[in-house]
Write a structure and sequence with these properties.
Order of helices and strands of chain B: EEEHEEHEHHHEHEHEEHHH
Helix content of chain A: over 70%
Oligomer: heterodimer
Largest sheet of chain B: 6 strands, mixed
CATH superfamily of chain B: P-loop containing nucleotide triphosphate hydrolases
Strand content of chain A: under 5%
Strand order of the largest sheet of chain A: 1-2
Radius of gyration of chain A: 20 Å
Number of domains of chain A: 1
CATH topology of chain A: ABC transporter involved in vitamin B12 uptake, BtuC
Strand content of chain B: 15-25%
Helix content of chain B: 25-40%
Radius of gyration of chain B: 19 Å
C-alpha cells in the first residue's frame, strides 16, 4: 500500500474533522460522536462480514469487552485511561480470536456462525449483568475527571476529533484490505473457500486474522463509548443493539467497501434522529425507519449506498476501465 | 514426481478408491481415465489433500505429504483445479489470477503483473478486467488453469479441464496444455474426452470401481479387454469381439 492509496481518505477525514468547529449545537456534536462510534463498530463488522463473508450477529461481544475493560481497569485498578484503551482493544481482539478458533475449527459458516456469535454475546451479557466486577445490573460509572491524560474531554468538539481519528484508523485498515495480499486472500475465501485453499491460502489463519482485526476495531468503538458516556451496564455493552447497528450500517452503506460503514452509520443514525424529531418521540419509531431503509437498500442497491456511487462511476468510465485497473483501480 | 502408494478411501460402506498405486513421472503428461463413479476425483482430492486418506501414502518429489493440508502442498508446488469450475465470482479475471500469484509474492503490483502475464498466455488477455462471473464455460476453464499456473506449480492436477467445451474450444486449449508441460510443469489429468487423452498423454491409468485395471500408453490401454468392458459393459464388449472388429475407443 502506497501513500497514494490513502488519498481518497484524506478529504473525508478533513471534512469530518472540521465539522465540529462550525458551531454545531451540543446535541448535534453528541450525535456526531455517536455516529463515529457506530461507524467504527461497523467498520469492524465490515472486515469480517463484508470482506470475509462471515456475518456475525454478536459484535457486541467485542464492543462490550472493549467498553468494560476500559471502565473496569480505570475504576477498579486505577489504570491510566490510555493504557486502558490499549488493553480494551487487546482484550476485545482476544475474545475475537477465541471465538474464531472455536467456530472456524469446526468449520462454521453462514447462519451457524451468526447464531454462535449471537450466543457468545448473550452469554457475556448475562455474565456481565450478574457478576460483581462489572457492577452487575447497576452498571459502572467512570468518575468524571476531565483531562487529556484521562481521555475525558470537556470540550465535545475535541471528542468528535478523537472519534474521527479512530474512524480514520478504520478507513486506513479497510484500504489496506483492498490493497494487500491478506485482503485478497480474505475476499477469495469469501468468494470460494475451496478454490482459495487450492491456491495455497491458509484459510484458518486468514479467517482468524480477520476476526481478530474485526474485533479490535469494534472493541475500540466500545472504549470510545465508555470514555464518552462514562457509564456502562450489561445491556449497553453486550446488548444486541450494537451488533444490529454495526451490521445495519455496514450492509446499508455497502459490504466490503471502504466508506460503506461510515456512510451507513451517518445515514441510519441521521435518519433515526430526524424521525425522532418529527414523530414526537414515539419509542422505537427510529428502529422502524432503520428497517425500512434496510429493506429499500437490499431491494434497490444490493451493494449498499457506497455501491450506488461506485456503479454509476463505473458506468461513466467504462471506456477507461482497462487502464484504470492497470493502475490497480479495480476494488469491487 | 508424484507417487501414490496403495491409497484407499471408503465412504461409509462404499469403497471409492481401493488400494491404488501409481506414479506420475517428472515432465510427463499422465492421464487418469475411467467410467463415471470410478473414483478418479476422489483419488485426485486425496492427492491434493482435500480428502483425508484411509490408508496409503502420497509422495511428492520424494517427500511424504499424505497428511499435509492442501495449502502447504500448493506451496510445495502441486496445485489442483476443480472439475466444477470455482471462480471467485465477484472479482475480475485479473484479481482471480492474482490470488494464485500472491502465493509467491506479498506485493500487489507484482501479483497483478504476474496475473496479467499468465492471463495473456492463456488467452484471457482481452477479458482481464471483466468480472469472472461474466466468462463463458471455456473462459472459466482457462481461468481455472491460469489461477493454478500463477502459483508457479511443478505439478498440475487437472480435473476434467476439457469437460463442457465444444470441439473447437478443445482444439484451441490442447496446445496450451502441451506448452505448459513444455515449460517444465508435470501434468496429471483426469479426462473423459479420449481424443484429448490420446493426443496429450504418454501414460494413462484406468480406474474402475475404485480399482486400477490398466496402465500404459493410451493407444494400447484402450484396446485392453478390461478397459473396454469397464466402459461398454461385458455384453457389448463380447459382441464387438464376436463381430471381429478391433474396437476403437
Amino acid at each position: 500500500m502506497s501513500a497514494r492509496d490513502l488519498f481518497p481518505i484524506l478529504p473525508v477525514l478533513l471534512v469530518l474533522a472540521v465539522l465540529p468547529f462550525l458551531g454545531l449545537s451540543g446535541s448535534l456534536l453528541n450525535l456526531l460522536i455517536f455516529m463515529m462510534i457506530v461507524a467504527l463498530a461497523a467498520q469492524g463488522w465490515n472486515v469480517l462480514g463484508g470482506y470475509g463473508g462471515l456475518a456475525s450477529f454478536g459484535h457486541a461481544a467485542f464492543f462490550g469487552t472493549g467498553a468494560y475493560a476500559a471502565a473496569i481497569l480505570q475504576t477498579r485498578y486505577g489504570v491510566n485511561a490510555w493504557a486502558a484503551l490499549v488493553a480494551g482493544v487487546v482484550l476485545g481482539s482476544l475474545v475475537g480470536a477465541f471465538i474464531g478458533l472455536l467456530t472456524f475449527r469446526s468449520g462454521l459458516k453462514g447462519s451457524y456462525f451468526a447464531l454462535i456469535t449471537l450466543a457468545f454475546a448473550e452469554v457475556l451479557r448475562i455474565i456481565a449483568n450478574s457478576s460483581e466486577i462489572t457492577g452487575g445490573g447497576a452498571g459502572i460509572v467512570v468518575p468524571i475527571d476531565y483531562g487529556f491524560e484521562n481521555l475525558q474531554l470537556r470540550d465535545r468538539r475535541f471528542f468528535v476529533l478523537l472519534a474521527v481519528i479512530c474512524v480514520g484508523v478504520g478507513l486506513v485498515i479497510t484500504r489496506w484490505l483492498d490493497r494487500s495480499k491478506f485482503g485478497a486472500y480474505l475476499i477469495a475465501i469469501r468468494e470460494n473457500e475451496d478454490a482459495a485453499r487450492a491456491l495455497g491460502v491458509n484459510v484458518m489463519n486468514v479467517k482468524l486474522g480477520a476476526i481478530t482485526l474485526s474485533a479490535a476495531l469494534t472493541a475500540l468503538a466500545g472504549v470510545l463509548y465508555t470514555q464518552n458516556f462514562l457509564f456502562l451496564d450489561a445491556n449497553v455493552a453486550y446488548g444486541p443493539w450494537i451488533s444490529i447497528e454495526a451490521l445495519f450500517a455496514a450492509i446499508v452503506g455497502g459490504l466490503g467497501t471502504m466508506f460503506g460503514p461510515l456512510i451507513g452509520a451517518v445515514v441510519l443514525l441521521g435518519a433515526g434522529e430526524i424521525t425522532k424529531e418529527f414523530s414526537g418521540g414515539i419509542p422505537g419509531f427510529d428502529l422502524l425507519v432503520f428497517g425500512v431503509i434496510l429493506i429499500i437498500t437490499v431491494a434497490f442497491a444490493p451493494n449498499g449506498l457506497a455501491g450506488i456511487s461506485l456503479k454509476s462511476f463505473r458506468r461513466k468510465t467504462r471506456g477507461h476501465t482497462a487502464r484504470s485497473s492497470r493502475d490497480g483501480g479495480a476494488d469491487a | 514426481m508424484l507417487e501414490i502408494d496403495r491409497l484407499s478411501k471408503r465412504f461409509s460402506g462404499l469403497v471409492a478408491v481401493d488400494d491404488v498405486s501409481l506414479r506420475v513421472e517428472h515432465g510427463s503428461i499422465t492421464g487418469l481415465i475411467g467410467p463415471n463413479g470410478a473414483g478418479k476425483t476422489t483419488l485426485f482430492a486425496m492427492s491434493a489433500g482435500f480428502v483425508p486418506v484411509d490408508a496409503g501414502n502420497v509422495r511428492f518429489e520424494g517427500a511424504t505429504v499424505t497428511s499435509m493440508p492442501p495449502h502447504e502442498r500448493t506451496r510445495l508446488g502441486m496445485v489442483r483445479t476443480f472439475q466444477i469450475v470455482q471462480p471467485f465470482a465477484g472479482l475480475s479475471v485479473r484479481e482471480n489470477i492474482a490470488v494464485g500469484a500472491y502465493l509467491r509474492t506479498p506485493d500487489r503490483a507484482d501479483a497483478l503483473a504476474e496475473a496479467e502475464t499468465v492471463g495473456n498466455r492463456l488467452g484471457l488477455g482481452p477479458m482481464l478486467d471483466f468480472a469472472a462471473s461474466s466468462l463463458t464455460v471455456a473462459g472459466r476453464k482457462r481461468l481455472e488453469l491460469a489461477r493454478a499456473l500463477a502459483t508457479r506449480p511443478r505439478l498440475l492436477l487437472l480435473d476434467e479441464v476439457l469437460a463442457g467445451l465444444n470441439p473447437t474450444e478443445i482444439r484451441d486449449i490442447l496446445p496450451v496444455i502441451r506448452s505448459i508441460r513444455d515449460d517444465g510443469v508435470t501434468i496429471f489429468m483426469i479426462e473423459h474426452i479420449m481424443q484429448a487423452v490420446m493426443n496429450l498423454c504418454e501414460t494413462v491409468y484406468v480406474l474402475n470401481e475404485g480399482k486400477l485395471i490398466a496402465e500404459g500408453a493410451p493407444a494400447i490401454v484402450c484396446g485392453e479387454r478390461p478397459v473396454i468392458e469397464a466402459y461398454l459393459g461385458q455384453g457389448a464388449a463380447a459382441r464387438l469381439r464376436a463381430e471381429g472388429g478391433q474396437p476403437h475407443a
